[in-house]
């Protein structure tokens, strides 16, 4: 079964999952040749190891609290916080609480 990605102009619900958060999974929401958008779900203490992507990214905390690490810096993101990061920068994150974040990646070379 193919994964559904929203089409151009389709409304995507990114409201907090609240009580459904513990049973939710990371889900791709939109993907084109130049842009990828997904909701990442991390339960408390889950980590995304350091990695890098070519294009710029944004990470918005939709609910919960995460530690966003890049270079030698750690920023705590709480519900409603957004961070933007240049492409090619090593970054990783760790959930302090059960959390979901909206991630956008500008894809280069497509």
What does this molecule look like?
The protein has 110 residues and is an all-beta fold. The chain has a single domain (26-106), classed as Jelly Rolls (Sandwich). 0% of the residues lie in helices and 49% in strands. The strands form 2 sheets. It has a 5-stranded antiparallel sheet, with no helix packed on it. β1 and β2 form a beta hairpin. It is globular and about 35 Å long. It starts with 26 loop residues before the first strand and ends with a strand. The mean pLDDT is 94.
Layout of strands and helices, then pairs:
Elements: E1 27-31, E2 35-42, E3 47-51, E4 57-63, E5 65-70, E6 73-78, E7 82-85, E8 91-95, E9 99-106
Antiparallel strand pairs: 1-2, 2-9, 3-8, 4-7, 4-9, 5-6, 5-8
- What is the tally of helical segments? 0
CATH superfamily: Jelly Rolls
Question: H/E order of the elements?
Answer: EEEEEEEEE
Largest sheet: 5 strands, antiparallel
Mean pLDDT: 94
């Amino acid at each position: 079964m193919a994964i559904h990605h929203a089409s151009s102009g389709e409304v995507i619900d990114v409201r907090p999952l609240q009580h459904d958060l513990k049973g939710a999974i990371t889900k791709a929401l939109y993907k084109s040749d130049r842009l990828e958008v997904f909701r990442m779900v991390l339960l408390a203490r889950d980590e995304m190891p350091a990695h890098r992507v070519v294009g710029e990214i944004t990470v918005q905390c939709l609910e919960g609290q995460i530690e966003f690490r890049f270079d030698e810096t750690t920023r705590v993101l709480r519900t409603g916080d957004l961070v933007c990061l240049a492409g090619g920068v090593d970054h990783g994150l760790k959930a302090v609480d059960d959390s979901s974040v909206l991630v956008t990646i500008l894809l280069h070379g497509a």
